[in-house]
Amino acid sequence: MARIGQFAPQFDRRVSTSMSDLQRSFAKAKLAKLPSEAPMPESMNEDAWEEDSSASSVSSTGTLVPSPTRQLFARAGRRQSSHASLSWTDFFEQELFFSEEVGNIHITHHAYLTPPTDKGPLFVMHHGAGSSGLSFATCTEEIRRILPKAGVLSLDARSHGRTVMTPIDSKIDDKAPSTAAAAQIEASGAVELDLSLETLSRDLIYVVRQTQAKMGWEILPDIVLVGHSLGGAVITDVAKNGELGVKPLAYAVLDVVEGSAMDALQSMEMYLSTRPARFPSLSSGIDWHTRSRTIRNTTSARASVPSLLYEDSEPTDPARPWLWRTNLSATKPFWENWFVGLSRKFLDARGGKLLLLAGTDRLDKELMIGQMQGKYQLQVFPEAGHFVHEDQPAKTAQILADFYRRNDRSALVLPPKVADMQASAAMKKGTGASGGATGHLK
Fold this sequence. Notes:
InterPro entries: AB_hydrolase_1, AB_hydrolase_fold, PPase_methylesterase_euk. The chain is of the alpha/beta class. The protein has one domain (93-408): Rossmann fold (3-Layer(aba) Sandwich), CATH 3.40.50.1820. Helix content is 39%, strand content 15%. It is built from 17 helices and twelve strands. It has helices at residues 7-18, 21-32, 53-56, 137-146, 179-187, 197-215, 230-241, 258-274, 282-291, 298-304, 335-339, 342-348, 365-372, 388-391, 393-407, 418-429, 432-441, and strands at 94-102, 105-114, 122-126, 151-156, 164-167, 223-228, 248-254, 278-279, 309-311, 322-324, 352-357, 377-380. The strands form two sheets. Strands 1, 2, 3, 4, 5, 6, 7, 11 and 12 form a nine-stranded mixed β-sheet that branches. Strand 6, helix 7 and strand 7 form a beta-alpha-beta unit. The chain is globular, with a radius of gyration of 26 Å. 44% of the residues are buried.
């Protein structure tokens, strides 16, 4: 993709044939304010800036399109010039850690929670590959604004965020394991990586049940499952298997479908080789995500990106000590497992269904047929990139809130049964079985 400075001559030739002198002067004045060159990280070549919607459906590193401004979609009222990180406490009430032993591995699961109140629903969020539970931070804030009684549980999957896997004989502090410690242990090869769909689905159910126990809920609140990219495959699998019983009211899949995801696998390795491998600072990592438009909302980037990186204590490049928390290349053996059969499971699972996409080009044949048959709700945000919930948190939250209301069982007022209506009428007339008794008493 041509860089920003190269757009001006082509644009000027176009406007010269169709605009008035006043319009041309206005356009030139605007172009003059743009930088002549969009700075590019040293480790990226020009191909890394090209938009690839299909690849972004697999990777939670997003759709790459250069932006002429650094904070184009930042929320009003926040300091748009800052790339300082935001804390999870700005968006969630609690941080949870649950430890368990599976085989020869000790796992400390990590999640963020804002509990529901007064019989409100619980939105259970699962992020995409390479991301973390904090990718739903800004969306959580907006959901709570619309549905004050709603709760949100957003977890970190294995090898993501602060969820840690260690050998049983060398576990680390379960109370607050650091992202750096988790990444370094896994990078050493001390534990075998297992990110199969079956394992991730099991982990999600485990975290939900452990949260229920910790919060002292006798029964689970009504649940809306929400998954982005890989997370969409996980929550669909959980909904299809029905292991949470009747509590899931509905499930929402964000920007992933089987067809485009499978097509994108061919270009994933090339994409991963073009993104920066290291960053000089955490703020530069946030800056890269917003400038490349991987995440188009600066507030969301400031909340989520810090959980995607960690500072190496003994870096091979001291000038760039910040590394990716998740080694996405190592997840390659699981890519097909994540998405094969996704469309059929999405259509067949019980409950309300929502598919939220960044473009209709992502729909495959099976989903197109299902949409024409009215089997699910489809919403498209063409102005968003792959991270629809981060790029457009308020709009996403509104769609999810409306989706919940549409599937809320407690809001249903069912008509009386015919037999009950007949019995009531008989009682009033003093006839029928119960009416005979009443007549006898008279």
